[in-house]
């Protein structure tokens, strides 16, 4: 039987953790590190997206920004966010 974590418990644990984890509807999942090729793809895609959004109300963020998707109860660190 698995233990369910509340969003509040997840945030408390995540703030103190030495590594990032995602929260998906009650479960916590450690995130794997990315390799060099993955990082280059993200940088290139983020740069292109930033150019397209220039002058508008939106901005591009990196994996350091945690997002909450309320409709599916997910806290995640997307490769590119905004």
Percent of residues in helical segments?
25-40%
Biggest sheet: strand arrangement:
2-1-4-3
User: So what's the overall shape?
Assistant: globular
Low-confidence stretches: none
Major sheet description: 4 strands, antiparallel
User: In what range is the share of β-strand residues?
Assistant: 15-25%
Rounded to the nearest angstrom, the distance between the terminal CA atoms is 36 Å
Using the CA coordinates, give the radius of gyration.
15 Å
How many β-strand stretches? 4
Secondary structural class: alpha+beta
Total tally of structural domains: 1
What is the tally of helical segments? 2
* Mean pLDDT reading: 89
Reading the helices and strands in chain order gives HEEHEE
Topology:
Elements: H1 7-16, E1 21-24, E2 27-30, H2 36-53, E3 67-69, E4 74-76
Antiparallel strand pairs: 1-2, 1-4, 3-4
Explained architecture:
About 0% of the residues are buried. It is built from two helices and four strands; from the N terminus they run αββαββ. It has helices at about 5-15, 35-55, and strands spanning about 20-25, 25-30, 65-70, 75. Helix content is about 35%, strand content about 15%. The mean pLDDT is about 90. With about 80 residues, the protein is α+β, with helices and mostly antiparallel strands. Strands 2-1-4-3 form a four-stranded antiparallel β-sheet, covered by helices on one side. It has one domain (about 5-75). The protein is globular and about 45 Å long.
């Amino acid at each position: 039987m698995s233990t369910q974590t509340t969003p509040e418990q997840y945030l408390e644990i995540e703030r103190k953790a030495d590594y990032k984890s995602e929260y998906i509807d009650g479960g916590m999942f450690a995130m794997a590190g990315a390799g060099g090729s993955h990082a280059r793809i993200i940088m290139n895609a983020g740069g292109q997206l930033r150019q397209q959004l220039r002058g508008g109300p939106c901005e591009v963020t990196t994996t350091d920004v945690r997002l909450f998707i309320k409709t599916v109860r997910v806290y995640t660190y997307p490769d590119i966010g905004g």
